Amino acid sequence: MYTLYYLPGACALATQVILRELRQPFELVDKRGVDNFLAINPTGKIPVLNDGENSLVEGAAILLYLLNKHENNLLPQADVFQKQKAIENILFANATMHPAYNRLFFATGAIADEHARQPFLEAAAVAINELWVLVEKKLAQQAFLGGDQVSTADIMLAVYARWGAYFPVDIVIPEKVSKMLAEVEARPSFIASIAAEQAHSTDA
Ligand SMILES: N[C@@H](CCC(=O)N[C@@H](CS)C(=O)NCC(=O)O)C(=O)O
Asked: Are strands 48-50 and 26-30 parallel, antiparallel or unpaired?
């Protein structure tokens, strides 16, 4: 049984969706209800996944651990090059798209004055929109980043894409990306994950 530490709507949502896709049992713990969370992860960040023996941190590393451990169609195993391309897409999501959205959260926390903050938000949105154009190009010949079937990186991007709505900026999601995101969001694993986060939230 896994334990997943999360915050509602944050990047651990992707970890939960993958746990459901892999049909692995888990319990959810809202980080805000944990005394001394820094003892669990010194960076203070979620996701943290406990597998009963080990406490695992860093979202992409956690996903690769789960995908290497449990049988699935979300990470190619037989072809080394295909596997490498899938890992590349996971890291594009985790280490390029996620930090691009982080700038919106950072500016909102760091700049109290709305007028002073807005140019930073807009500059961040320009960079995010450029990344979505790159994803649109990757989807020119295929429905998902991994090909015909949903891949781990698609799920991660679907989680991050939801964050744009929190900010007063125009995030432009191109057509093929929109279709891909809608298909991921319609998956039972995604719908159930959002519902479970709300049900377990310390806000609930
Ligand atoms: N490099 C880390 C970053 C994780 C991260 O930025 N988590 C955010 C949520 S998406 C977080 O924990 N924010 C809460 C905070 O900073 O207090 C990873 O990929 O796991």
From this structure: unpaired
- Residue 28: which H helix or E strand, with range? strand 26-30
* pTM, two decimal places: 0.96
Pull the structure tokens for residue 201: 């939230």
> Residue 181: CB within 6 Å of ligand 1?
no
Q: Which atom of ligand 1 is nearest to the CA of 46?
A: 12
Q: Using a 6 Å cutoff on CB, does residue 45 contact ligand 1?
A: yes
DSSP assignment of 62-123 equals HHHHHHHHS--SSS--S-HHHHHHHHHHHHHIIIIIHHHHHHHHHHHHH--SHHHHHHHHHH
3-class secondary-structure state, position 197? helix
Structure tokens at 49: 């996944």
Coil vs helix vs strand at 154:
helix
The reported pLDDT for the residue numbered 203 is: 67
